[in-house]
Amino acid sequence: MQYQRLGNTGLVVSRLAFGVMTFGVSADPNAPTAGVWKTPQKEADSLVGRSLDAGINLFDTADAYADGQSEVFLGKALGLRRKDVVISTKVGFRSGESVIHAGASYRYILAATEASLRRLNTDYVDLLSIHKFDPFTPAEESARALDNLVQRGLVRYVGYSNFTAWQAAKFFGIQRLHNYSPLIAAQMYYSLLGRDLEHEVVPFCRDAGIGIVVWSPLASGFLSGRYTRQDPTGGKGRIASFDFLPYDREKAYDLIDKMKAISARHNASVAQIALAWLLAKPHVSTILLGASKLSQLEDNLGALKVTLSSEELTDLDDFTAPAPLYPAWFQSTTLDEPMAKALGKP
Known about the structure:
With 346 residues, the chain is of the alpha/beta class.
């Protein structure tokens, strides 16, 4: 296993982490999430055990996953090994029918976190993130709530997920102004099919010393290679019932063809190529694996043995490059070259 500090902290995490969104069983077998929440406790125990054996020390969950079952299953699976790992959970999605059972208000963040601790059967969580931006709550209030949890010892570090760069920057600035515990992690979607965060989020995180935790590195499983033009459902895989990531499907099929050629040269799977590409990105701290079967987890772990050549990385970068956005393209095209050369800047 490879390890790295998470952001500008002393917290050391494995480069491959385990996301347990699949832990739990959907109450409605016909619900879209039934294809996601499908891992009972016995299988969860096996997956966590294998992850620990492989050196994974970061496990991520959220109160919204399987109506809290994910946290319960993770807590049971870890058992006495809880002290050896970093537990990350998230709050913010709706957890009840009452209008106040959602968001990032002071009241809800505290109540939701305390409930998560009970489900996880732990006295503290190592990393607590706001799961999504709350447009109805002042950032000052949310930041104060996170700091309260840190000061009480219920949370060690705080982060965010699915914020824009300006939203995170504003939140971070408020924390610094009031000397609150700062954001140290950004859990964001990032894959060869979704590179939007390279526009603004990556530069912000680098500047602020915030570590990027990648979710859905295989684009909900599409980058496993099982989905093809001939079988778009992938044998009734997750995307057949739970497909919400936006991307050009035809170009995605072309990308899979390119990745299959690369995987053949490395005697690797398509999924391992997708993960190896992310591991080569210096701005990525850790990658959340979302396996629901031991065979999937074993395959994902094999990505650590794959080292893509500079030519292969460039080929994948160029083929999936996101379209430039204004004003980024204006700033890059008007950069003062003599000054940049004099300062040794690319």
